Structure formats: C-alpha cells, structure tokens
Amino acid sequence: MPAKSSTKNSSVQMAKHLVNSLSDTYLLTIKTHGYHWNVTGPQFYELHLLLEKQYQELFEAADTLAERIRALDVWAPGSAQAFHMHTAVKEAGDKPPSAKGMITDLVKTHEQVRTRIEEGRSFANEIGDAASEDFLIQRLDAHDKMIWMLRSQAA
After folding, report:
1. What mean pLDDT value characterizes the chain?
2. Is the pLDDT of residue 56 over 90?
3. Are 33 and 55 in contact, with CB atoms under 8 Å apart?
4. What is the pLDDT of residues 63-83, one digit of tens each?
5. Count of CB atoms within 10 A of residue 73's CB?
6. Which CB contacts under 8 angstroms, 24+ apart, belong to 78-85?
7. Which of 65, 128, 147, 149 has minimal Cβ neighbours within 10 Å of its Cβ?
8. What distance in Å separates the CA atoms of residue 94 and residue 34, rounded to the nearest whole number?
9. Distances from the Cα of 34 to the Cαs of 97, 100, 102, 155, in angstroms?
10. What is the distance between the alpha carbons of residues 61 and 2, in angstroms, rounded to a whole number?
C-alpha cells in the first residue's frame, strides 16, 4: 500500500486533471448555450433542440466533476476566472458563426475536451483511482455521442 503522503499527492494530481476537465466542460457549456441562442438557418429547429440537450448534459456533468474533485478533498473552482486559468476551450466570441461554423467549432472543441479527459482517465488508471477513471470513461462516451450527433447534422 502506498504511503499516505503519496496517496494524498496522487489525489491532488488527479484533482488537477479533474479541474481541467471541469473548466473545459463549463466553458463548453457556455459556448454551446450561446450557439443555442444564436443559431439561424434551415437547420434552426433541429440544432436549437440538439444544442439545448447538449448544454444541459454538459451542465450536469460539470456538477458531477466538481463533486468528484471535492470527494478527493480538493476545492473545486467556482469562478469564471478560475475556469479560464485551467481551460483549453477557446470562447466563441461576440459574433456567432453560421450554423455550419457552429457545428464545426463544437466538434473541434469536443475533441479538445475529450483529449484532456483522456489524459485524466489515463492518470486515474495509473494511480488506481477506479472511481475517477470510471467517471471519466463515461465522460468520454458522452463526448463521443455529442461529436457523432453534431457531425450527423453537418452531413
């Protein structure tokens, strides 16, 4: 069994991966919500509903990520400033792109978020944190589904 300080250090490192995923997820939620509000064009209705479903799922995932961070006895970030310090997500900007541009941007962003989640999942596996690994596998699956649905809209 690892020494207590080693276990604590592993938990702190795991929490850092989860903070990255939480920050990415929260900013992706905001981006998706903004696109939901501003989508236009022939695909409006379908995209409006799809994006609503996705931002709601992402918001719930952010809550669960924060709870997992707290379960590791680390404070979860709770401000936009903190999220910006730990995210790889590029914000949408003031002028929304076309519906096709939104889809392209969201697919790219989900892929970025997915890559960072995979880094966390790999670390969880390395340190034997089955709870974090299981949760992150579920997040990978959720992002795969969102990417698939977005790509299907562009086909």
Report:
1. 94
2. yes
3. yes
4. 999 999 999 999 999 999 999
5. 10
6. 82/23, 83/22, 83/23, 83/26, 83/27, 84/23, 84/27, 85/23
7. 128
8. 10
9. 11, 15, 10, 22
10. 30
